[in-house]
Design goal:
Number of helices: 17
Strand order of the largest sheet: 8-7-6-9-10-12-11
Organism: Gossypium aridum (American cotton)
Enzyme class: transferase
Membrane topology: Single-pass type II membrane protein
CATH class of the largest domain: Alpha Beta
Number of strands: 21
Oligomer: single chain
Keywords: Glycoprotein, Membrane, Methyltransferase, Signal-anchor, Transferase, Transmembrane, Transmembrane helix
Structural class: alpha/beta
Shape: globular
CATH architecture of the largest domain: 3-Layer(aba) Sandwich
Largest sheet: 7 strands, mixed
Subcellular location: Endomembrane system; Membrane
CATH topology of the largest domain: Rossmann fold
Strand content: 15-25%
Radius of gyration: 33 Å
CATH superfamily of the largest domain: Vaccinia Virus protein VP39
Number of domains: 3
């Protein structure tokens, strides 16, 4: 160590004294005992509190406190008047972007996210609340569906007739100008199963104004009327305005949005579908959705060509060739002729496995579809030139094996075993639950069960429980199963109900103002991670009739946010408890306001 003079001291430094270090250790130990005493006394104080007090202080990890979703209030502008019949995914404004081969431009082509409309679709000038069922089957307000073109083109065939402020529907059609009643009477003579409850569900391809489906309602048969979007005829819009089930669609390059083996009957009355072209691929799609033992009914070319060919701008030789080609295709698909009289021919889809076994032989056309093609895959699924063979293990799904209507509604279908957790007891429990819920709904919404509500959609059904609970009311229900959810739609059809696949991130295949009641049960809980709530509610507003209702059953987490958006849609809503008053789930009962565009003379 250096001194001030810079010299080093040769002597080492003296060590620290021991006494002060010992005292430091004693002081630190004493302080630690003091702190320990404070901690122990506080611990004893906490342990002395009751369990109830502790539970108030610390929330349970199993049920964390979650604040409801909050969304700022928003107001939506009105769409311009030329959007009054806007169908986003089948919009004629966008047809030129798609090819005309096999009419692909008529299929679903939804706009990209940046082109989606965020406005409210206005009603036509002079719109009135629809005429109520059953009177609506025979007449509707002209201003609600203001298409005079179809009146001029089809008046000679008795499709409809304009009289004053109304369209009247005499019940005629291209192949039944004397009336649909006489036409269906003849059909029932050919198919006795239409009279005894065996035939319950039907699809009408190229439905006109849905007079065939409307007539069958009184005969206990529920029909999905199918037609594409068009610029003039608006067939589906007329059907729904009348209170008859219908949906936009076309058999083109993609499967129809229905499961396999679903409909008991399919019908085409001069629907202009080229059945024998493209290797019979359109017939193959009818075969897929038709139940084994089900019936395909064709009236119009080339049936009865011997007497009709002169009116078809063709020759008898051409029509004979077309008919023989049609018969050959149907036979190769395991159809057999069931009955024929005058202009009506009926074929039946075989439920005999021996015919389908032959389709596995080499060089057979059409061949059996391989196992990689899921029979029920039907959301943007391309058509394939092969036969979807009924599964041999499903022996009770053929038409002749199902209970007759209405017993069919209450019996657990065979295909419920394909649903995870599905069983007879599960269906019974679901039905019991929905009976209680429907009773509660009618207390909150007295219009439910009256003719004020006719067209109903259950936006995310499971087994069709809500539709079953209101089956005796003067309404029909379109049961929607999400294309991303468990596939339960075959069960819905096996029960004698109707429905469709759909993805609620996109617009539904219908015209604006076509439903009186929209019902959902936990849709946003299930789909909010994929679908923007705002766009789903805007789509609900588009398809809901003015003065129509929305019944939303949702988690308490979403209810406030839904109510906030609904206010911007000009809906009036009130929040209600569920039938059991549970806190985690609430009901929102809403009604859409009738308003007119700023440019409308009806304001």
């Amino acid at each position: 160590m250096k001194h001030k003079d810079g010299k080093y001291n040769s002597q080492p430094e003296k060590p620290f004294k021991i006494v002060p270090a010992t005292l430091l250790v004693i002081v630190l130990c004493g302080f630690s005992f003091y702190l320990g005493g404070i901690f122990c006394s506080e611990k004893s104080r906490l342990e002395g509190k009751s369990v109830q007090d502790v539970s108030k202080t610390v929330s349970s990890p199993k049920e964390p406190a979650v604040d409801p979703l909050q969304i700022k209030s928003m107001a939506f502008q009105e769409c311009s008047a030329d959007f009054q019949d806007y169908t986003p995914c089948t919009d004629p404004r966008r047809w030129r972007k798609y090819g005309s081969h096999r009419l692909t431009f008529l299929e679903r082509h939804c706009p990209p996210m940046l082109e989606r409309k965020q406005c409210l679709v206005p009603p036509p000038d002079g719109y009135k609340p629809p005429i109520r069922w059953p009177k609506s089957r025979d007449e509707c307000w002209y201003r609600n569906v203001p298409y005079n073109w179809i009146n001029k083109q089809k008046s000679n065939q008795n499709w409809l007739r304009k009289q004053g402020e109304k369209f009247l529907f005499p019940g005629g059609g291209t192949m039944f100008p004397r009336g649909v009643g006489a036409y269906v009477d003849l059909m029932q003579d050919l198919i006795p199963e239409m009279r005894d409850g065996t035939v319950r569900t039907a699809i009408d391809t190229g439905c006109g104004v849905a007079s065939w489906g409307g007539d069958l309602l009184d005969r206990g048969i529920l029909t999905v009327s199918l037609a594409p979007r068009d610029n003039h005829e608006a067939q589906v819009q007329f059907a729904l305005e009348r209170g008859i089930p219908a949906i936009l669609g076309v058999i083109s390059t993609q499967r129809l949005p229905f499961p396999s083996n679903s409909f008991d009957m399919a019908h085409c009355s001069r629907c202009l579908i080229p059945w024998t072209e493209f290797g019979g691929i359109y017939l193959l799609e009818v075969h897929r959705i038709l139940r084994p033992g089900g019936f395909w009914v064709l009236s119009g070319p080339p049936v009865n060509y011997e007497n009709r060919w002169r009116g078809w701008n063709t020759t008898v030789e051409e029509q004979k060739s077309d008919y023989e080609k049609l018969e050959g295709l149907l036979t190769s698909m395991c159809f057999k002729m069931y009955a024929k009289k005058d202009d009506i021919a009926v074929w039946q889809k075989s439920s005999d496995s021996s015919c389908y076994n032959k389709l596995a032989e080499p060089d057979v056309y059409p061949a059996k579809c391989d196992d990689s093609l899921e029979p029920d895959s039907a959301w943007y699924t391309p058509l394939r030139p092969c036969v979807v063979v009924p599964k041999p293990e499903l022996k009770k799904s053929a038409l002749e094996s199902l209970p007759k209507w209405p017993e069919r509604l209450q019996v657990a279908p065979e295909r419920i075993s394909n649903v995870p957790g599905g069983s007879s007891s599960a269906l019974m429990h679901d039905d019991s639950k929905w009976k209680v819920r429907a009773k509660h709904y009618k207390k909150l919404l007295p219009a439910l069960g009256t003719n004020e509500i006719r067209n109903v959609m259950d936006m995310n059904t499971v087994y069709g429980g809500f539709a079953a609970a209101v089956i005796d009311d003067p309404l029909w229900t379109m049961n929607v199963v999400s294309s991303y959810a468990t596939n339960t739609l075959p069960v819905v059809y096996d029960r004698g109900l109707i429905g469709t696949y759909h993805d609620w991130c996109e617009a539904f295949s219908t015209y604006p103002r076509t439903y009186d009641l929209l019902h959902l049960d936990g849709l946003f809980t299930a789909e909010s991670h994929r679908c923007d709530m705002k766009y789903v509610l805007l789509e609900m507003d588009r398809i809901l009739r003015p003065k129509g209702y929305a019944l939303l059953r949702e988690s308490s987490y979403f209810i406030d946010a839904i109510a906030s958006i609904a206010k911007g849609l000009r809906w009036s809503c009130h929040r209600e408890d569920t039938e059991y008053g549970v806190a985690k789930e609430k009901l929102l009962v809403c009604q859409k306001k009738l308003w007119y565009s700023a440019s409308s003379s009806s304001r």
